[in-house]
Amino acid sequence: MKKRRGIVAAGHEITANAAAEILRAGGNAFDATLAALFASCVAEPVLSSLGGGGFLLAHDNSSTPRLYDFFAQTPINRPSPKEIDFHPILADFGTAQQEFHIGMGSIATPGVIKGAFEIHRQHGSMPMREIVQPACEAAHDGITVNNFQHYISEIVAPIIKSSPEALRLHSNNGAEIANVNDKIVHHEMADTFAALASEGDALFYQGELGTQLLQDSAAHGGCLQRQDLALYQVMTRKPLSLQYHGTTLYTNPAPSLGGTLIAFALALLEPEKLNNWPANSYQHLLRVARAQQLTQHLRKTQKVDLQLDDNTSRKILANDYLTTYRESMRNHHVFPRGTTQISVADTQGNLASMTLSNGEGAGYVIPNSGIMMNNMLGEEDINPHGFNNWPTNSRIASMMSPTLLFSPDNTAIVTGSGGSNRIRSAILQVLINLVDFSMSAKDAVEQARVHFENELLHIEAGPSDEAINALEEQFPNHRLWPEKNLFFGGAHTVICSPDGELQGQGDSRRGGVSTTV
User: Fold this and answer.
1) Which of 189, 202, 437, 473 has the fewest beta carbons closer than 10 A?
2) Is residue 126 part of a domain?
């Protein structure tokens, strides 16, 4: 019988295949994750770019997990709003619209390239030139546009059409956004990958790629200066840890928001023993919705967006602090974003959960590179101080929450999600489905979800009419979605059992796939 090497779940077949190819070649989970990172820039250009930021939660079977923070950083100097190129666009989700801001003034200091090479130095086992090869081949051969990628391209069409260079990343003729089944080649992107593999991250942070970015930033209303790139560092952190029904959870710690909010919701739900009711029943969904509602209340009243640090995070999760919120759960009292996920496990015990984001993209592409820069300074969700009021030289807080969970029998779960503020609710519900209801990876990921935000409960189609009607009575301000939608996140998930069984599921809401090698 052929020995299994590992499993991957990701947002596109090309992304997953790149990781699988590296696993087959003898690479470890971290080599495979990096291969998927580069390939995702080719196959998922709306969601992933070397011009953005991200996180990796890594477990190498020799120590406790470690969190690598290579998310975007605010610039060291903040120009006057009158001096920067910063303007709104309207993204159309069909059932809803959302305003984003783009332009050179929306670009924060990116961390993906620095993060990739730091992860490679710490955990890689293969040369970087071999790791990027699947992405290079995919870029040269061309990517056939699928339904999901076309759909999200249409959502952010104003950004894609904001510059000829941006349009070329999503077009096979340079004149219009490619249709489903059209093929797009990315020769410049492949050349950039190869150059980075040869010269290292210095090519961007100290070399010609960064120099071009800085020149254009200075000439066209950007905020970035040479010291922003020169001083950028990957940060390593001890993950936030929580016990939940006998399992041990590790996720993204402060200053990022998502991990603490997920942990808080799980802490509220632990006494509820959700498996006393059927999955997707009214009693189950009511408690999940209430926990989300109370988490939203915590976020607003404690202003954790503005001041979350390790001390505040520990205070939030302390038993004394939880008492009032758990009482509200029992009595049912009510207090008056583009991202992709890569999850990989290998059979040597290495686990990698990586979440990447480019925002929606700034509309600016570094010439001749294929790198669309982020618009993190134009993301309302992660700019609680208001636009152009960001604190200088600070790591931007994020909802991104790469997550690992270990059960008492040493079964390991690797998950995470894209989806802006829906990240935390997607991960929360996948974990509940796995732990409380003992679902398979497929069922846990594909189960219908609810999401509470801004006093509105979003309900995904799937529960019985009886359960939905009862929820609607409890939450008069609600929206019932007619089918699964990328709004509810993309929680690509893998499970590795101690007996060697591997399970994986790419979230169908975001075109996800899973491959076992």
Assistant:
1) 473
2) no
Active site residue 339: yes
Q: Is residue 233 part of a domain?
A: no
Write the CATH number for 452. Answer: 3.60.20.40
| H or E element, residue 129 | helix 128-131
Q: Which residues contact 25 (CB under 8 A, 6 or more apart)?
A: 126, 130
> What is the per-residue pLDDT across 369-379, written as a single tens digit (0 to 9) for each?
999 999 999 87
Distances (CA, A) of 318 to 161, 263, 322: 48, 11, 6
DSSP characters over 139-193: HHH-EE--HHHHHHHHHTHHHHTTSHHHHHTT-SSSSSPPPTT-EE--HHHHHHH
Surface-to-core class of residue 211, CB atoms within 10 Å of its CB (0-12 exposed, 13-18 middle, 19+ buried): middle
Contact between 152 and 338 (Cβ < 8 Å): yes
Beta bridge partners of 55: 69, 355
Q: Calculate the alpha carbon distances from 396 to 92, 254, 315, 446, 514 in Å.
A: 26, 11, 21, 31, 31
Structure tokens at 99: 């305003």
DSSP 22: H
Q: Is residue 506 part of a domain?
A: yes
Please pick, among 33, 251, 339, 493, the residue that the annotation labels catalytic: 339
Average pLDDT over residues 298-317: 67
Domain membership flag for residue 494:
yes
Residue 64: Cβ-neighbour burial (10 angstroms; 0-12, 13-18, 19+): exposed
Instruction: Please state the rounded mean pLDDT for residues 373-386.
Output: 80
Q: How far apart are the first and last CA of the chain?
A: 13
pLDDT, position 137? 98
State the total domains in the chain. Answer: 1
Parent domain of 320? 239-339+400-510
Give, in order, the Cα–Cα distances in Å from 150 to each of 10, 166, 210, 417, 514.
Answer: 17, 15, 30, 20, 21
Tokens in use for 133? 């090869």
**How many CB atoms are closer than 10 A to CB 336?**
3
Q: CB within 8 A of 122, min separation 6: which ones?
A: 58, 68
SS3 (DSSP) at 114: helix
Identify residue 122 by its one-letter amino acid code.
Answer: Q
> What whole-number distance in Å separates Cα of residue 236 and Cα of residue 56?
10
* Whether this model's pTM surpasses 0.90: yes
DSSP 51: B
Backbone angles phi, psi at 342, to 5 degrees: -125, 125
Q: What is the largest distance, in Å, between two alpha-carbon atoms of the chain? A: 66
DSSP state of 5: -
DSSP, collapsed to helix, strand or coil, labels residue 399 as: coil
Identify each DSSP E strand in 32-84 by its residue range. Answer: 53-59, 66-70
Q: What percent of the chain has pLDDT over 70?
A: 92
